[in-house]
Amino acid sequence: MSKIKITNSLVSVEWLKENVSAENLILLDADMPPVTHVGEAITDSYIPNSSRFDFDHEIKDMNTSLPHMLPTPEFFTDEVQKLGVNQESAIIVYDHVGVYASPRAWWMFRAMGHENVAVLDGGLPAWIKAGFETSAHLKPKPTQRGNFKANLQGDAFVNSAYVLKALDDLQFTILDARSAGRFNSVEPEPRAGIKRGHIPNAKNIPFANVLNNGVVKPKPDLQAIFENYQNNKLVFYCGTGVTACILALAADQAGCKNFSVYDGSWTEWAGATATLPIES
């Protein structure tokens, strides 16, 4: 089969089945254990010919105590080349609960300048529900490196200084992907030592609001969710920068063009030694 070009940030399992033999297709299992309950994870199956993309332990900034922060372009390039990824690769990322961790991997590739990447809608559960073949094992790392080269996009992921400057800027809207209970300080944070509350002036769109049972909601529903923010520069955050990327994917599907993810998210903003402003 000839090479393919991905034209949407979200693809169906039927699309993947139809294109699974494309010579430039790379399948990446980007699963991560949920911090909060989002559904049952499938632990013993994979989509055939998948490689592991582990942003929780391996492909991350090793020089910070914050979880799974974006690494340098050089580190990302090295790790991704080990997976056999090329500049022309069409990458599909998926996870084991539906749509949860995979958007983080999608946004990492986008942040590193690779546009030919998409999330598998519904992930492994949707693949299995459709009756498609699974494998009990991941694909071994290839013996030949790919030629992938990262090209960091400056504002795909942003830091606390960027968010602090955006707090009172009417051109920005800060959107929190955590649950309403955590946003409103009535539920404890799942990580020890993190204060309750939210970033001042932030709005709350719990990531579950853009999903239906692990599948991204239809485009008209997403457009309705984001219609009040379409003209603003959006900054998404969550607990650790994972579910914020679900909102980024949903915003992309809704047609939003101007958005970033705050990488350190609430774990950095409200850490025990942090002195950044908090609303409760």
Which SSEs are present, and which pair or pack?
Layout (H helix, E strand, L loop, with lengths): L9 E2 L1 H7 L5 E5 L20 E3 L20 H10 L7 E5 L7 H10 L5 E4 L2 H7 L27 E2 L1 H7 L5 E5 L3 H4 L19 E2 L6 E2 L2 E2 L2 H8 L6 E5 L6 H11 L4 E4 L2 H5 L11
Parallel strand pairs: 1-5, 2-3, 2-4, 4-5, 6-12, 7-8, 7-11, 11-12
Antiparallel strand pairs: 9-10
CATH class of the largest domain: Alpha Beta
If classified by CATH, what would the architecture of the largest domain be? 3-Layer(aba) Sandwich
Biggest sheet overview: 5 strands, parallel
Number of strands: 12
Overall radius of gyration: 18 Å
Query: What structural class do you assign from the helix and strand content?
Result: alpha/beta
**What overall form do the CA principal axes indicate?**
globular
**Which whole number gives the mean pLDDT?**
95
CATH topology of the largest domain: Oxidized Rhodanese, domain 1
Alpha-carbon distance between the two ends: 55 Å
Segments where pLDDT lies below 50 for 5+ residues?
A: none
Q: Provide the spatial order of strands within the biggest beta sheet.
A: 1-5-4-2-3
Individual helix count: 9
